[in-house]
Amino acid sequence: MRLWSLHPSLLDRAALVSCWREGLLAQAVLSGRTKGYLNHPQLERFRACPDPVVAVVTFLAAIQEEAARRGYRFDRSRLATTPEAQLRITVTSRQLDLELEHLRAKVRLRAPEWEARLREARPHPMLQVVDGPVEPWERQERAES
Hints:
It is a single chain. By secondary structure, the protein is mostly helical. The protein has five helices and two strands; from the N terminus they run αααβαβα. It has helices at residues 13-30, 44-47, 52-69, 93-110, 140-144; strands at residues 89-92, 127-130. The chain has a two-stranded parallel sheet.
């Protein structure tokens, strides 16, 4: 599961589509509608919010908006509740840098023309960047790959 901390506009088609699908899975997990992925580390940041379902829906809403901007049809009716536009969670600067490098590596293989768009790490609209190391929820084997 990769729920990108990067701004959705930085995600290539494959990353955007998979982030939507995996975000919907995260929504199902946090809503108690599935038994798989219950302990996935990337869910920690949503679980730390007062209402984890609203947090993941807010995350997904920005993914859906970017998809619509590109002409894709991600079904907004799949969101479990109303996003909270003012909701913010933090992400560390090093996490954002790590994810940008991870995305660059993927894009080099599947969509090299997209790499030029990946000049600087910008956060997802609901995330506020704070100085710090890679997030504790990041799987280190992924961080190193």
